[in-house]
Specification:
The complex is a heterodimer of chains A (258) and B (233). Chain A is an alpha+beta fold and 258 residues long. Chain A contains eight helices and eight strands. Chain A starts with a strand and ends in a 10-residue tail after the last helix. Chain B has two domains: 49 residues, Orthogonal Bundle (Helicase, Ruva Protein, domain 3), CATH 1.10.8.420; 136 residues, Dna Topoisomerase Vi A Subunit, Chain: A, domain 2, CATH 3.40.1360. The chains are: A alpha+beta (258), B alpha/beta (233).
């Protein structure tokens, strides 16, 4: 027995299928990640228009049948457009990295309104922001870690106690320790990088976007966040867009590599 | 349901390797082949083998061709100062069908797709840069290889002269004819960032409403692009 579902969704990816159709992976507000078939989506006069591009925030209607792995999409419309995400190479790549992370780290049909709201909020900021786009990607990855149940256990006193020697990030708990502490699964970093890591983990998005970082600190923070995420999600951590971002970063886009 | 003949079953298996051909369609095609005159079947078989044996890549534009350079790159009346950059050989056919374009082409062999792990080094972007500047002037951070600076050995003197003429031609405009989607946008912005410092004009084909379409049914993103790209009458 199939039911008709109408829900908001973020498009995670689209894959061409047969002559004119597409298989689209949607992150829906009500049912988590759902794969749908959009028949005729590649036709010039398709009723789906530009709504099925990755990072689009849309309302979808589809027939849902629990026994089927692929649902049938019948209708789409934009809930909110993020046109500026498609007007710069940096924004395009960061947008795709955001949806790639969601696609890779969430289970199919895992209802997660917290991650849904986070994704929409970050895409909205990506559309509006003119600078510090690297901060945005770092914020998203840290908040995703929190939403998935492994928020770093950061104490303000540990951060303020850091000396010029720097310190160590415990990859298991996310706690920050002085550099002399020996930990089996940890990574050393400068005081600036660890403080930035703590701010990104605890502050709200507006404050994170105000944060100015030296390029060296930014790279160190990105490395800390990546190691922390990789430690917890292991093989599920997606690397495809990371590799492509490395190749693209030579074309004058310094923040592409996260 | 299987055919009682191993040969027919083998043909069905082979046909299912083609895109969009499922087992049922393959069975229908196999049944049709059984009814065809032998001469026609031989023609199809020979055409399939000829495609693999004779078709090569044009050294200049990377389009598919029987003769290197391809017929478009050989044509003296084509405008070599304008290069239309397309994703694959099918796009060359689509643009040629318009009968409006008189320049030459460059086939990238795909588009940049971070979600599928396809980056500039998987495409012929460095080869495009070589058509604009000498290999020594291409920035080191453009992924890919320079390829051979000399024409391939299997071309005659006439072809060599054509290849050299293309290399010597001053390119004035690059038209990016990539699909209007996220991958196309990513590719277009990447190429424009590389080409802009070279004082070569970079344009992109217009995006918007299809002829015969209805404004009422257009989505906001498409309509918005159509408004942005409006032209005077």
């Amino acid at each position: 027995m199939s039911t008709i579902v109408r829900t908001d969704a973020v498009v995670l990816r689209s894959l061409d299928y047969s002559e004119t159709s597409q298989i689209v992976t949607l992150f829906t507000r009500e049912r988590g990640i759902v794969s749908v078939i959009a028949k005729g989506a590649r036709k010039i006069k398709s009723r789906f228009g530009a709504t099925l591009q990755p990072t689009s925030y849309i309302q979808v209607v589809f027939y849902y049948k629990p026994t089927r792995g692929l649902q049938t999409l019948t209708e789409t419309s934009h809930v909110e457009r993020f046109p500026d995400v498609h007007r710069s190479l940096e924004k395009l790549v960061i947008g795709q990295r955001i949806v790639e992370l969601v696609d890779a780290l969430l289970q199919e049909e895992e209802h997660n309104p917290m991650v849904f709201n986070l994704t929409v909020g970050v895409l909205r900021t990506l559309n509006e922001a003119d600078e510090r786009l690297g901060n945005l990607l770092a914020y998203f990855r840290m908040q995703l870690a929190t939403a998935l149940g492994f928020a770093p256990a950061i104490r303000k006193s540990d951060v303020t106690a850091l000396t010029d020697e720097g310190g160590r990030l415990d990859l298991n708990t996310g706690a920050i320790h002085p550099s002399e502490v020996q930990l089996p699964q940890s990574r050393g970093a400068s005081r600036a990088a660890l403080r930035a890591f703590a701010v990104i983990a605890r502050a709200d998005l507006r404050d994170v976007m105000r944060m100015q970082m030296e390029p060296r600190t930014q790279r160190a923070v990105d490395g800390l966040i990546e190691d922390y995420l990789r430690y917890h999600v292991e093989e599920a951590y997606p690397t495809r867009s990371d590799d492509v971002a490395s190749q693209l970063s030579g074309a004058g886009s310094s923040h592409l590599r996260g | 349901m299987q055919f009682s003949s191993e040969s027919v079953e083998g043909l069905v298996e082979q046909l299912t390797k083609l895109p969009s051909i499922g087992r049922k369609t393959a069975q229908r095609l196999a049944a049709f082949v059984l009814k065809m005159p032998r001469a026609e079947v031989v023609e199809i078989a020979e055409a399939l083998i000829a495609v693999k044996d004779r078709v090569r890549e044009c050294t200049i534009c990377h389009n598919v061709t029987d003769r290197n350079p391809c017929v478009i790159c050989r044509a003296p009346r084509r405008d070599r100062s304008t290069i239309c950059v397309v994703e694959d050989a099918n796009d060359v056919l689509a643009i040629e069908r318009t009968g409006e374009y008189r320049g030459v082409y460059h086939v990238l062999g795909g588009v940049i797709s971070p979600l599928n792990g396809i980056g500039p080094e998987d495409l012929r972007i460095r080869e495009l840069m070589r058509r604009l500047v000498s290999a020594d002037d291409i920035p080191d951070d453009v992924p890919g290889t320079n390829g051979s600076a000399t024409p391939p050995e299997d071309v005659d003197a006439e072809a060599e002269a054509i290849i050299e003429a293309h290399q010597a031609a001053a390119v004035e405009e690059i038209i990016l004819a990539v699909n209007p989607n996220v991958e196309g946008d990513t590719t277009a912005y990447y190429i424009s960032q590389l080409v802009n410092p070279l004082e070569v004009s970079v344009t992109r084909i217009a995006r918007g409403l299809p002829i015969g379409g209805d404004l009422e049914y257009a989505d906001e993103a498409t309509l918005s692009r159509a408004l942005e790209g409006r032209g005077s009458l």
